[in-house]
Design brief:
By secondary structure, the protein is of the alpha/beta class. The chain has one domain: 3-Layer(aba) Sandwich (Rossmann fold), CATH 3.40.50. 41% of the residues lie in helices and 15% in strands. α3 runs parallel beside α4.
């Protein structure tokens, strides 16, 4: 299928998990993709529709570098999928300022800064899209997730504000809220069958999510099918939030 034919997309966190699944899926649907991840990450795709860039999203120059690279290689920009994220597990009483700041820098500040840099180009596009990866933990919480939950709640708030500001230009802005997804970030826990079974049972579909489950929601939002959806935070969680 070619739901993204002729479209140019930037996807951060593209080396693994949801990001890698999205890069592959978007390219298969006709998009040309700039896959972005940290320097040294595995960004090999073997697909001529995919260009890659290794950069630390928290660097001051990162947004300008990413946008300039996309424009240099593809000539325009239609879609930004702010997917990269990190987590830390620490009770608030034990969390260092450095750990808190790092989570906010990657999960929230980088999303804002890349979106801001992209806005003029998305307005110029006839198909401007911003998609942000939040989390069901933007609405819920768990032990040791103060920094992560705060960052993802911030992503949802930012998404709504950007949608309001950019709607008059025809640019849509939405968030995807993954639930329990088997990715690189969660692999250490979900590789334990006992832990995986507990979280699979929390889902009303009785399984863990896979990266492609979230990538397909992002594809919908990036395509013409999602053209009248904006300012929304869509849970891709197998029904997990029905139980929490």
């Amino acid at each position: 299928m070619t739901r993204l034919a002729g479209r140019i997309a930037i996807i951060t966190g593209g080396a693994s998990g949801i990001g890698r699944a999205a890069v592959t899926l978007f390219a298969s649907e006709g998009a040309k993709v700039l896959a972005v991840d940290r320097p040294g990450a595995d960004l090999a795709f073997g697909d001529g529709a995919v260009e890659t860039l290794g950069v630390d999203l928290t660097d001051t120059s990162a947004p300008a570098t990413i946008i300039a690279t996309a424009l240099e290689r593809f000539g325009k920009l239609d879609i930004v999928f702010n997917n990269a994220g990190i987590g830390v597990n620490a009770l608030a009483a034990d969390m260092t300022d450095e750990a808190w700041d790092r989570v906010q820098a990657v999960n929230l500040r980088a999303v804002f800064r890349l979106s801001r840099e992209a806005i003029p180009h998305l307005i110029a596009s006839s198909h401007g899209r911003i998609i942000n990866t939040a989390s069901v933990m933007a609405q819920g919480t768990d032990w040791g997730l103060a920094a992560y939950c705060a960052s993802k709640a911030g992503v949802v708030g930012l998404t709504r504000s950007l949608a309001l500001e950019l709607g008059k230009h025809g640019v849509t802005v939405n968030a995807v809220m993954p639930g329990a997804i088997f990715t690189g970030m969660t692999k250490a826990n979900f590789a334990n069958p006992a832990i995986a079974e507990v979280w699979a049972k929390k889902s009303v579909l009785r399984r863990l999510g896979q990266p492609v489950d979230v990538a397909r929601v992002a594809l919908f939002l990036a395509s013409d099918d999602g053209g009248f959806v904006t300012g929304q935070a869509i849970a891709a969680d197998g029904g997990l939030t029905l139980r929490i």
